[in-house]
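> forwarded from #structure-qc
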């Protein structure tokens, strides 16, 4: 197949882009695979440095690794909120008992099924302070197995398109 023929294909021919996502992209003027090639990230998040829980600083986008101590669903004004308490890894026993609270204000029904106590997570988001506690809202989460290597990379952030998930851009 010629390269030009591939570039002229509609965006729906890409993996992960269906009819609804394709319509959202077309509204932004992105109709072909070639159009998608020229969409550049609006910024890059530097996730090359993994910060220990004890060294997290409010106001900065940071990456850390920990183990789930507790996960629960709460309700505020009839809205479900998922909260996870992340503690230091067992191998970091020299670390003082510092915890990080992870919160998702828009949740999905089986979210808690994946957030089991004892699970190791790599999380990244802007760190804030709420009621004296360190917190990340809507963090990017990667579940780590025992032999996983912690990924350190620059993460592209693409323009938001209603109807298209953040993960669909990076595919």
């Amino acid at each position: 197949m010629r390269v030009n023929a591939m570039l002229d294909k509609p965006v729906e021919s890409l993996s992960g882009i269906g009819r609804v996502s394709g319509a959202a992209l077309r509204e932004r003027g992105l109709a072909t695979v070639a159009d998608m090639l020229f969409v550049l990230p609006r910024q890059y998040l530097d996730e090359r440095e993994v910060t220990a829980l004890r060294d997290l600083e409010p106001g900065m986008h940071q990456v850390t690794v920990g183990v789930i101590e507790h996960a629960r669903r709460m309700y505020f004004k009839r809205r479900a909120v998922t909260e996870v308490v992340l503690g230091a890894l067992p191998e970091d026993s020299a670390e003082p008992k510092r915890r990080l609270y992870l919160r998702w204000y828009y949740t999905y029904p089986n979210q808690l099924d994946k957030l089991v106590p004892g699970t190791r997570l790599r999380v990244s988001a802007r760190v804030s302070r709420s009621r004296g506690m360190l917190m990340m809202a809507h963090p990017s989460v990667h579940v780590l197995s025992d032999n996983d290597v912690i990924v350190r990379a620059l993460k592209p952030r693409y323009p938001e398109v209603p109807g298209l998930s953040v993960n669909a851009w990076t595919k």
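QC bot note: The beta strands are 43-47, 61-76, 79-87, 100-104, 120-130, 133-137, 140-144, 153-157. The longest strand covers residues 61-76.
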